[in-house]
Each structure stands twice: as C-alpha cells, then as structure tokens.
C-alpha cells in the first residue's frame, strides 16, 4: 500500500465523522423541514392571492363606448378595438347568426391573441390550440382554464356600443 | 427526567424509520393539496369569483399547521444505537 493510500485510510474517518445512518437521518429530516417550508410558502401565496383580490379588485369598465358602425363589420368578420384609457385589446365579432359579440382578445391560458374562425362559431387560440364558443365565450377545447371575459354589445341606431357586463341578479 | 423526545429516541430504529417516512408522506400530501388549493384560488380570483378565496386560504393555513405539528413528531435520531 502506498503512503498516500495509507494516509487516506487513516484520515478519511476523521474527515467524515458522520455515521451512515445518521447521514440518512439528517437528509430526510432536512427534507421534511423543507417540505414544511414549501407548505408555508404556498400558504403565504394563497394569502397574497386573497389579499390582492379583496384589496385591489379588478376595475370594471365604466360607461359606454362607441366601437364602430354596424356595416363596417361584415357577417363573419371581426374588428379589434381598445377602450380609451385602457390597454386591454378586445374583438368585436359579427356572427353568422347576425349577433354581435365582444370579447377580450387575450386567451385565458397564456394571453396569446385569439381570433374568430369565420363560419365555425369558434374563437381559436393558435398558441396551444385552445377553442372558445363564440356565442358565450366558454372554453370548448384545449388548455384555457376560464371563459373569455366579455362585454355587452348594444346598438344606438346604426352604431355599435359596448359596456361592462351587467351582473345577473339571482333570486 | 424522561420525556417524549427521549423515549422516542430510545425506540427501535425501524420504528423511527416508519415515523419519519409517515411524517414525510403526510407533508407531501399536504403540499399537494395546497398546490391544488392555490391553483383553484388563482383561477377563481382571475375569474372574479371571490367566495372560494378565503376558505382556500384557511384550508391552506390549517394544512400548514398540520405540517408544523408533524415536525414535532419527527425523530431526532436513535441515541441508543451502537457507535
């Protein structure tokens, strides 16, 4: 045995004075503590979500906003618009049934731009193949977790206006 | 003076092993449920449904407390083992 090996054999126990069983105990204990820390983090995250929702609620769009004239959007056509004082993009859709619908243009999955597929009644998100019902905004297929936020569309003679959705009163 | 910690530490390593594994199992279960709660709360917050937020936070808090209590039962190692 060379001197180096001898030296190693003599000293390694001094360098690593922890028994194997103890070593495994330590790491599992640390793992359990880490899990508790993660648990605390998730609890704090949940608290932050709640606090934000109650203290800084999403502001509803106020008032009525002119979008365009009816004849400017052909059947099956869409028109993108932005409300003054806001940066959220919306689309106005003239459905084949003759109805007008307005939705936020951001997919609820990862905020890609959605577009209306003429003739199908489907609003499509090209990023991850998400599909929304153009009549209600509900999710039909794909990863989006929520329906598209929508606006109420109404008319004043020939002009198309939008406003925030009026809350439906139940009961 | 004998106490919970001392008597726990004197028990068979197999028992300590089982206790520690159980504690870790419960903690992983807690964290999984908390992730689900956070996901649900976030989705509902973005959808303007506030009813679920406070119950989700309370549930998350309770699970965290359960985790903290589990830590108390975590063995500190068998001091009886042969060195």
From TrEMBL, chain A:
Molecular functions per Gene Ontology: 2 iron, 2 sulfur cluster binding; metal ion binding
One Pfam family from the record: Rieske
Superkingdom of the organism of origin: Bacteria
Rieske domain mapped to chain residues: 65-162
Gene3D superfamilies tied to this protein: Rieske [2Fe-2S] iron-sulphur domain (2.102.10.10)
SUPFAM superfamilies per UniProt: ISP domain
One GO cellular component term noted in the UniProt record for this chain: membrane
Cofactor(s), by name: [2Fe-2S] cluster
Keywords: 2Fe-2S, Disulfide bond, Iron, Iron-sulfur, Membrane, Metal-binding, Transmembrane, Transmembrane helix
Transmembrane segments: 31-51
Keyword Endoplasmic reticulum: no
Signal peptide: none
Record-given protein name: Rieske domain-containing protein
Organism: Flavobacterium flevense
Lineage of producing organism: Bacteria, Pseudomonadati, Bacteroidota, Flavobacteriia, Flavobacteriales
Automatic annotation (TrEMBL), chain B:
Cross-referenced Pfam families: DUF6755
Key words of the record: Membrane, Transmembrane, Transmembrane helix
Annotated TM spans: 20-40, 52-74
Protein's recorded name: Uncharacterized protein
């Amino acid at each position: 045995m060379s001197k180096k090996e001898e030296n190693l054999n003599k000293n390694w126990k001094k360098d690593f004075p922890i028994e194997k069983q103890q070593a495994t105990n330590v790491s599992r204990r640390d793992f359990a503590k880490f899990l508790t820390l993660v648990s605390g983090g998730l609890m704090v995250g949940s608290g932050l979500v709640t606090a934000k929702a109650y203290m800084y609620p999403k502001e509803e769009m106020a008032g009525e906003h002119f979008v365009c004239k009816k004849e400017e959007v052909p059947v099956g056509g869409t028109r993108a618009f932005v409300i003054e004082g806001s940066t959220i993009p919306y689309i106005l859709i003239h459905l084949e049934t003759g109805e007008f619908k307005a939705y936020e243009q951001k997919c609820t999955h990862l905020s890609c731009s959605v577009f209306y597929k003429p003739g199908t009644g489907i609003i499509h998100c090209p990023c991850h193949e998400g599909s929304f019902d153009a009549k209600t905004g509900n999710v039909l297929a794909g990863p989006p977790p929520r329906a598209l936020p929508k606006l109420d569309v109404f008319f004043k003679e020939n002009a198309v206006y939008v406003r925030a959705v009026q809350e439906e009163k139940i009961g | 003076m004998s106490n919970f910690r001392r008597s726990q530490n004197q028990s068979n390593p197999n028992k300590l092993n089982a206790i520690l594994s159980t504690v870790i199992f419960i903690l992983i279960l807690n964290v999984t449920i908390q992730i689900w709660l956070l996901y649900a709360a976030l989705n509902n917050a973005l959808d303007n449904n506030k009813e679920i937020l406070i119950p989700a936070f309370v549930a998350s808090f309770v699970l965290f407390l359960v985790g903290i209590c589990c830590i108390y039962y975590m063995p500190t190692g068998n001091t009886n083992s042969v060195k």
